[in-house]
Specification:
alpha/beta, 18 strands, 35% helix, globular
């Protein structure tokens, strides 16, 4: 009996696959309170009913942390990636990971490689189990969660964006988070290309990977020079310029092609430094996808010459907020705090001498900013935190922000 641990997007796709293959399975999910059946008539059970004695394999949802009771009780745990690799002959694969920018980089890379038959999946696009195995290239946005549980599936190319503190409550420490991100280096074949931030050069896992083709970059300019790229032909500015150059660099290695025009046709998705102009002509920025401190710092770097009304707060995932407030002390800003960390952020603001207003929720924060926002100032939603304490996703948070801004 195969056990699906969790019933999110990944394991819903697995349920469909196992049903089509006539393979028996059971689903165990924290949100299920009483036994029922899934769409295919198979048991959908509360997590407390899991019995490892009748389970021959446990496919774990990436979001389940290592100390989850289902994970601890499992005796045959396998990741989504390893299960797929055991069932199909996977094509050449490029993993894209990092703290911020991996979705944009993955989408840009998918666009650039689409003429060569690539498909995109992983965290975005199609779940792995539904990807077309005959495609010549899989481009997978890959989370630290998936990497933690993956023991065998190794990419042929690996693009790792810069790392910063994130998901510490899941991994337990920043070092464990970094080790998960670097794990593919232990699995990849010799001479496989890997893009790495130069600051990781001395990490023990990097030093051990001397047989790989390690391509270090310090910043966008350094990467462009190293890879023979002309950054002046790329229309994107930071923080998206590095994403674009990494996508171009990886495409150049994989296909031999550098297509600036095709790259420049990419449209940035909502909730990533998305500009909104209200009825009074004032500037609001929807950066709801900034779910960690590093992302907010990159957003603030775009507005160093302006007074910034900054909305922050939510689930901080156990990270240290000190770097955020160290930057805020040197800026013209006022923060408006929301979500589970609202009180903590006000306390830290008081410690660092940063003007702050406890708002509790997003609508109240927007209303408070509307009272004082001037035409030469910027209102920025860049929460430095995940959204799940008050919203179903960062998209829902960003959509509400936009609606509140545009409301009369």
């Amino acid at each position: 009996m195969i056990s699906l641990l969790g019933y999110g997007r990944t394991n819903r796709a697995f349920a469909n696959y196992l049903h089509r293959c006539a393979l028996p399975y059971r689903i165990y999910d924290d949100a299920t309170l009483t036994p029922k059946s899934d769409l295919y008539g198979q048991p959908l059970l509360p997590s407390t009913l899991f019995d490892p004695q009748i389970s021959c394999l446990e496919i774990v949802s990436p979001g389940f942390p290592p100390k989850h009771p289902l994970v601890l009780a499992s005796e045959h745990l396998i990741s989504e990636y390893d299960y797929v690799a055991s069932r199909v002959s996977v094509p050449k694969t490029c993993f894209v990971s990092g703290t911020n920018g991996k979705t944009t980089t993955t989408e840009m890379l998918g666009l650039l490689c689409a003429p060569f038959g690539s498909v995109v999946g992983g965290n975005i696009g199609t779940p792995l189990i539904n990807l077309f195995p005959q495609a010549p290239l899989w481009i997978l946005e890959t989370s630290s969660f998936s990497l933690h549980y993956t023991q065998r599936y190794a990419p042929h190319y690996y693009v790792l964006l810069p790392l910063a503190q994130d998901h510490l409550s899941w991994h337990g420490s920043y070092e464990a988070y970094v080790e998960a991100k670097l794990k593919p280096l232990r699995l990849m074949d010799k001479k496989s290309p890997v893009f790495l931030q130069a600051s990781l050069r001395d990490h023990v896992l990097v030093r051990e990977a001397k047989d790989l083709d390690l391509i270090f970059y310090e910043d966008s300019n350094h990467l462009a020079k190293n890879m023979g790229l002309d950054s002046s032909r790329v229309r994107f500015k930071e923080p998206f310029l590095l994403d674009a150059l990494l996508a171009l660099s990886a495409t150049k290695l994989m296909t031999g092609q550098v297509d600036y025009d095709r790259l420049n046709s990419y449209t940035l998705k909502p909730h990533r430094l998305e500009k909104i102009t209200d009825s009074q002509g004032r500037t609001w920025i929807n950066d709801s996808k900034a779910t960690n401190v590093d992302a907010t710092l990159k957003a603030l770097a775009c507005f160093t010459d302006s007074f910034v009304h900054l909305i922050v707060g939510g689930d901080t995932k156990g990270v240290d907020l000190t770097p955020l407030f160290e930057v805020l002390t040197g800026m013209q800003t006022r923060i408006y705090t929301i979500g589970a960390s609202a009180h903590l952020m006000v306390e830290m603001a008081n410690q660092y001498g940063v003007s702050a207003l406890l708002c509790g929720d997003l609508a109240h924060a927007v209303d408070a900013i509307k009272i004082s926002l001037k035409e030469d100032q910027v209102a920025l939603l860049s929460p430095s935190a995940a959204s799940l304490d008050q919203f179903s996703s960062y998209q829902e948070r960003g959509d509400l922000f936009r609606a509140c801004v545009l409301a009369p």
